[in-house]
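So, could you explain this one?
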Amino acid sequence: MEPSSIVEKGLIQAFSIQRGRMPWDPKQALVCGAGAVGLLAAIFLRLRDIEVSLVAKSDPGSPAFKVAKAVGATLLDADQHPVAGLAKELGHIDLTFEATGASSVALNAMAATGNNGVCCLSSVTAGMRTVTIDSDSLNLDMVLGNKLVFGTVNANRRHFEAAARMLGAAVRKWPGVLDQIVTRRVAVEQFADAFSRQPDDIKTVISFTGG
């Protein structure tokens, strides 16, 4: 259920806010990041019949690539397809869902969002990164493009319930796909191993067994 509820909360709010502003029927979405949050966002968007492109540092043989392909999303390698250039490459992007944890990507995701579009920020950045941006151009683009940017975090009960329905729909439509997002299971006795990231990790869980 986690982080599904946070993802679904962000998508519910994106639709609610946008449709309160204008008639809105999104056709194309960009998801930045192919971790558990990004892949769940891609799955939930595909369930809404929206075309999805994911951009992340991932190769064609990775588990993330296989999940994206299974649900009909396109996974682009970030080194070859930087977020800053995706608006020209993909065309009009109605909805951007950012889930990388990198502030520079979040800023580029705002700019990549098309006119009258919405950008949902779900990643939590940490540290003391400093980036230089063309703030005048970004501000002008946001205002004249009538764009919306908002953040999503802790969900409430109705978002948990909505996420459960979406997970159920995903299981029925693409059997086995959700299982591929959990790439490692670690016994509680070796819990420290869960924090040592492996190259193909998406989501690692700690298993509790016995009494």
Remarks:
- The helical segments are 4-21, 36-47, 63-70, 86-90, 103-112, 135-144, 157-173, 177-181.
- The beta strands are 28-32, 51-56, 74-77, 95-98, 118-121, 148-151, 182-187, 203-207.
- The chain has eight helices and eight strands.
- The chain has a mean pLDDT of 93.
